[in-house]
């Protein structure tokens, strides 16, 4: 299947990519949405994005730099522009795009972002991507159940979070919609709710550790 290059997407003033510009491509572009604080961006983010291309067959991965995670304290959160810049530098991949979509849309809650993106980009298929740590606490997110109904979800393993994630309220509530990992490449085409947990090679990087190391001068 031909790959869709980033420059074939028309990006209107909102910064949100719209329909493919080259009308020749009638299939729906599959985009992985990886929301994050990126405080700062690191190799763990790249690791997940690369696995997402491979395991989900995506055309692009968008790193949605969050203006402010509603569940994290604002104290210690670097300026949005610095985090966006950090994500742009770390992406180093033609199909990973660090984006300020939530800042432009004025959304903070993922449920609102997904509803807005689906309305603006009706020809795209979205998959929400997150690490196992976020599935473990997903039931604390605003309208978390709606998120599962709005978008396919792919969860990537992360050191020390596999068990907590798979025992979580969200995993239990949506157990019957879990797609076997061998069918992960079908996820983007499935009607939500549909989600997959990928037991992949884990990457130890964490922004908390990087900030701690910076504070300790190491
Ligand atoms: N090493 C990793 N393995 C798997 N998923 C990861 C990894 N690092 C980040 N993620 C995922 O990427 C998304 C964005 O993460 P975020 O920017 O918050 O980085 P973080 O390292 O988790 O930050 P912090 O330590 O400040 O909480 C989240 O869904 C998170 O679960
Ligand atoms: O919508 C929510 O209630 C919500 C609660 C916690 C996290 N999120 C989103 O989850 C993504 C990952 O956040 P983080 O800080 O773990 O990188 C990011 O896009 C946040 O906006 C969203």
Automatic annotation (TrEMBL):
<dbReference type="GO" id="GO:0004515">
    <property type="term" value="F:nicotinate-nucleotide adenylyltransferase activity"/>
</dbReference>
<dbReference type="Pfam" id="PF01467">
    <property type="entry name" value="CTP_transf_like"/>
</dbReference>
<dbReference type="InterPro" id="IPR004821">
    <property type="entry name" value="Cyt_trans-like"/>
</dbReference>
<keyword id="KW-0067">ATP-binding</keyword>
<dbReference type="GO" id="GO:0009435">
    <property type="term" value="P:NAD+ biosynthetic process"/>
</dbReference>
<comment type="similarity">
    <text>Belongs to the NadD family.</text>
</comment>
<feature type="domain" description="Cytidyltransferase-like">
    <location>
        <begin position="33"/>
        <end position="212"/>
    </location>
</feature>
<keyword id="KW-0662">Pyridine nucleotide biosynthesis</keyword>
<comment type="pathway">
    <text>Cofactor biosynthesis; NAD(+) biosynthesis; deamido-NAD(+) from nicotinate D-ribonucleotide: step 1/1.</text>
</comment>
<comment type="function">
    <text>Catalyzes the reversible adenylation of nicotinate mononucleotide (NaMN) to nicotinic acid adenine dinucleotide (NaAD).</text>
</comment>
<dbReference type="InterPro" id="IPR005248">
    <property type="entry name" value="NadD/NMNAT"/>
</dbReference>
<keyword id="KW-0520">NAD</keyword>
<dbReference type="GO" id="GO:0005524">
    <property type="term" value="F:ATP binding"/>
</dbReference>
<keyword id="KW-0808">Transferase</keyword>
<keyword id="KW-0547">Nucleotide-binding</keyword>
<protein>
    <recommendedName>
        <fullName>Probable nicotinate-nucleotide adenylyltransferase</fullName>
        <ecNumber>2.7.7.18</ecNumber>
    </recommendedName>
</protein>
<keyword id="KW-0548">Nucleotidyltransferase</keyword>
<dbReference type="InterPro" id="IPR014729">
    <property type="entry name" value="Rossmann-like_a/b/a_fold"/>
</dbReference>
């Amino acid at each position: 299947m031909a790959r869709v290059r980033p420059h074939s997407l028309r990006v209107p003033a909102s910064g949100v990519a719209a329909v493919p510009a080259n009308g020749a491509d009638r299939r729906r572009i599959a985009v992985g949405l990886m929301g994050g604080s990126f405080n700062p961006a690191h190799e763990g983010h790249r690791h997940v994005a690369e696995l997402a291309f491979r395991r989900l067959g995506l055309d692009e991965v968008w790193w949605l730099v969050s203006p402010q995670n509603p569940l994290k304290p604002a104290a210690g959160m670097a300026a949005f522009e610095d985090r966006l810049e950090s994500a742009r530098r770390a992406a180093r991949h033609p199909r990973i795009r660090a984006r300020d979509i939530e800042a432009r849309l004025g959304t903070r809650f993922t449920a609102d972002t997904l509803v807005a993106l689906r309305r603006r980009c009706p020809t795209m298929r979205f998959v929400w991507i997150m690490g196992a740590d976020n599935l473990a606490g997903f039931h604390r997110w605003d309208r978390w159940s709606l998120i599962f109904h709005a978008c396919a979800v792919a969860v990537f393993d992360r050191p020390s979070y596999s068990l907590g994630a798979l025992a979580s309220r969200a995993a239990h509530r949506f157990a019957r919609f879990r797609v076997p990992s061998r069918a992960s490449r079908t996820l983007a085409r499935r009607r939500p709710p549909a989600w997959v947990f990928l037991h992949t090679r884990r990457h130890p990087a964490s922004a908390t550790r990087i900030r701690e190391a910076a504070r300790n001068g190491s």
